[in-house]
Amino acid sequence: MSQPAERLVVEPYDGRYRILDMEGKLLATTARRPEAFDFVRGRGARVRLKWDRTVIGGQSSPGDFSAQHEDHRAGRIYPVVAGFDRAKWAWFMNGTDPDSGRGGSISGRGDTKDEAVVALELAYTSFIADSDKYRPK
Question: Is the pTM here over 0.90, yes or no?
Answer without folding.
Answer: yes
